[in-house]
Amino acid sequence: MGVDAAVPLPKSLKDFGDEKYWDDFFRASKGQAFEWYGSWADLPQLLQLHCGLRPDQQPSLQILVVGCGNSALSAHMYDAGFTSIVNVDFNRRVITEMLRLHVRARPLMRWLVMDITALQFAESSFDVVVDKGSLDALTGEPEEPLTAAKSLLSEVKRVLRPGGQYVCVTLAQKHVIGVLLETLRQGWEICLHQVSEASRDPSSPLQPFLVVATKTNSADIPLVTLLTGDVPHANSLVDVVNEENKLRSEARSAGYKTSLKPDEKEIESKLQDIYEQLHPGRRNTVVLGGHYPAVVMDAKPHSASPTYRSAVFLVPKGRAHEWLFSSEEGQWQVLESAQAGRLILVMLDTHQYPGSLSAVQDELSPLVKQLLPLDCRDAPNVPYMTTNDGLYRRTVVEEIESPMTGTIQVEDVVLDADKSSGNKVGNQNCFRRLVFRRNPNLIQSDASLVLVKGPSKDKDRPSTVREAGRRHGSGKKKGKAKDSSNSIKQDSAEEFKVDHSHLVSKYHEAMIVGLSLIAENLEQWVTAKEPIRALVVGLGAGLLPMFLHNHLPIDHIQVVELDGVIGDVAKRQFGFVENDRMQLHVGDGIEAVCSIARLSTHISKNTGGTLASELANDLSGVHCNERTIKTEGKLHILFIDADSQDPSNGLSCPPAEFLEESFLHAASDALVEGGILAINVVSRAAAPHVTSVEVLRKVFEEVYDLEIDEDVNRVLLALPQKSPAEHSPGGLQAAASTLGKLAARFNSWGNGPSLKDVIRTLKRLK
Questions:
Q1: Sign of CA dihedral 440, 446, 450, 454
Q2: Fewer Cβ in 10 A, N or C end of the chain?
């Protein structure tokens, strides 16, 4: 396909690794797909004949497309019947554009911003990895370093299941094929196919090939197969394959004793010399025993005196991809927590290690010895550490697959009594948790379970806040449904139910306590009988909106959740209800907020040209598809509690788009005078916290912070106007008291947060 002259072409292959180049490219392309490596018409026959890929396979193939760009390849595959596709690209602009383009017509496809050299997926997650030109882009010119290309191929090896296939469309330049064949050697069957003559570009001497690499998980080193026709650079490609097959044949005939890497004894000798002494601030990566990736770190200068001269930290299987263990900043945090002079961080992901951690320790001990400081190598008790969350017992209540979120688990857990302050069984605490497999280290929702005697009977909530009596209870139910929130039982007359008055998550408490900043306004609205409207973006288990519903005088609570499966789980397992006061909408939270801002601005200014309107138009391809959000007025309360599908930058909550200035302007437009915005920000990296505060300070009159967990979890509160609490005679303590009295007139506070205690931690940032 020809390229419009307005679209910037790369000056060199280096441009392919530059995000700014791709920003300019995708902006100029205006949504038009450019197929650098041929069209879809060339590939279906190859996929079926040479890859054995058919859309009717059961179970359906789990496919990952790396470096998807704005190619139509994924859409064509989806329309051909391959619907379980995850697309990733490091460019946020193109992912946003592709999501908007395909979310309606192809709802099962997922689009994620991610670095393809450090994929945020567990090992053995996919049946097929599709790569159309990404390996070429990362390899660059022949003289350039191969680090990025090797990282991509290593990630492909990790995320593919045994029997899985790496399907790579490439121009098959000598240095590109060379690094591929070298990296995918033992245990990989590789075949190169010439793509159809129909796609040949006569102006280029390079033509696309399809490389199919099948992961066998065996010790064999199969020969490479090359199927080619009359292609200009075929001779050089034949030479590369022949040279590789010669090497593989020698290894096979030698019974695989021929070393394809430097001698391990030589490496060990060098390692011993390198690690004899501590070198403050040094960080090196190594591989132990051929299958344990490890990071060796010496404490930075001026660090606190270490408790241990050296220590080993075992990263559990399935967690090596998390920011804390995969990023350099996170790894330094682990070292500080371990209080070690030297920490050897060992990843257990890439190898089927022995059944117990003690067996792992026995296997690792002789391997890590060479990495210890010289004066520790004969020590009998180098400490081994790992994560410990105080779990006494875990029971998986339900596991369900969501096309959008992936695997969702509901767990009932019992913690040691000294680990938490939840409801106790004997000397333990019982909780129900919502966990996403894609981010197992982040508990999405944590609910306290309370013991109830005999059959529970939910009472009706009043349909409006100011209905006489303000009776206590949950929402009205339509018919009877089995409630499975009773997996922990004492006897036939006792069961555990979710306690909606107890906010286990400290950030939920902080968001509620933050309403003290507008307590005087809330009281005035109640007195004036002005309907109070709240919007919660991100449902989770529904615990935050349920607390708002049961304990505060809010007339209309709208909850927006992108994944309808999560809504079903919240109702079935956590007691979330819908009624006249509270409704759940399946859709995009940004679009919901922008729609309210756009409509409110249109009503007040009779114009659709505001920034909020423009943003809403930009995102108009993503709509709430169950019912229309009530937009008869602005919001008094806006809570953002959404999970990020792209934790690669260290930001677990919210998605980065919610912290962009354009969205925050829309959020400000959507709030009434005297309203409040609260955002849950979770990041182990420092940069997102700093940036989010800076952007909020640009948009809002006042900004406050509630630090929850040592800079990891913070609740940011923003007001379009000055807070009456901050400037009243009684200050924040009086405001918290006002909020408590207002809530008490509505309903019992139950096990709700201590308003006056939490408000003491509030800090004003602007």
A1: negative
A2: N
Render 502-544 in DSSP notation, one character per residue: EE-SHHHHHHHHGGGGGHHHHHHHHHTTPPPEEEEE--TTSHH
Residue recorded with tokens 């121009």: 171
Beta carbons of 608 and 598 less than 8 angstroms apart: yes
The pLDDT score that the predictor gives to residue 48 is 63
Residue carrying structure tokens 């991610």: 114
682 DSSP β-pair partners: 653, 713
Q: How far apart are the first and last CA of the chain?
A: 53
Sequence length of the chain is 766
Which numeric CATH code is attached to 31-253? 3.40.50.150
SS3 112: strand
Would you list the DSSP string of 440-477? TTSEEEEEEEEEEESS--PPBPPSSTTSTT----B---
Determine the Cα–Cα distance for residues 553 and 499; give it in Å rounded to an integer: 19
Assess if CATH 3.40.50.150 describes domain 505-713. Answer: yes
Give the residue ranges of the chain where pLDDT is below 50.
1-13, 15, 26, 35, 198-204, 256-271, 350-352, 354, 390-391, 418-420, 424-427, 456-493, 603-631
Q: What pLDDT score was predicted for residue 680?
A: 92
**One-letter amino acid of 407:** T
Q: Fill in the amino acid letter for 158.
A: R
pTM: 0.56
Token pair recorded at residue 504: 């286990």
DSSP string computed for 568-634: HHHHHHH-----SSEEEEES-HHHHHHHHHHHHHHHHHS-S-SHHHHHHHHTTT----SSPPP-SS-
Q: What residues contact residue 754 under an 8 Å CB cut-off, 6+ apart?
A: none
- Rg, the chain, Cα only: 29
Q: Dihedral, CA atoms, 405, 411, 417, 423, nearest 10 degrees?
A: 100
Beta strands in 702-759, from DSSP E residues, in sequence order: 702-707, 713-719
Q: What sign does the dihedral 307-308-309-313 (CA atoms) show?
A: negative
Query: Cα separation of 146 and 168, whole Å?
Result: 17
∠ CA 397-400-405 to the nearest 5 degrees?
125
Cβ–Cβ contacts within 10 Å for residue 223, how many? 14
Say if residues 514 and 704 touch (Cβ distance below 8 Å).
Answer: yes
Q: What is residue 668's predicted lDDT score, i.e. its pLDDT?
A: 94
The kind and range of the H/E element at 209 are strand 209-215
Name the residue among 652, 676, 280, 360 with its Cα closest to residue 514. 676
Residues in Cβ contact with 568 at an 8 Å cutoff, skipping those fewer than 6 apart: none
Which DSSP letter does residue 375 get?
Answer: G
Q: Round to whole Å and give the CA distance between 17 and 19.
A: 6
| Residue spans in the chain of domains classed CATH 3.40.50.150 | 31-253, 505-713
State how beta strands 635-640 and 582-586 pair.
unpaired
What type of residue sits at position 177?
I
Q: How far is CA 321 from the centre of its chain?
A: 10
Nearest to 209 by CA among 224, 185, 225, 227: 227
Q: How many CB atoms lie within 10 A of CB 277?
A: 12
DSSP 698: H
3-state secondary structure (DSSP) of residue 153: helix
Nearest by Cα to 316 from 298, 334, 336, 289: 334
CA 179 to chain centre: 30
Q: Positive or negative, the Cα torsion across 158, 162, 164, 169? A: positive
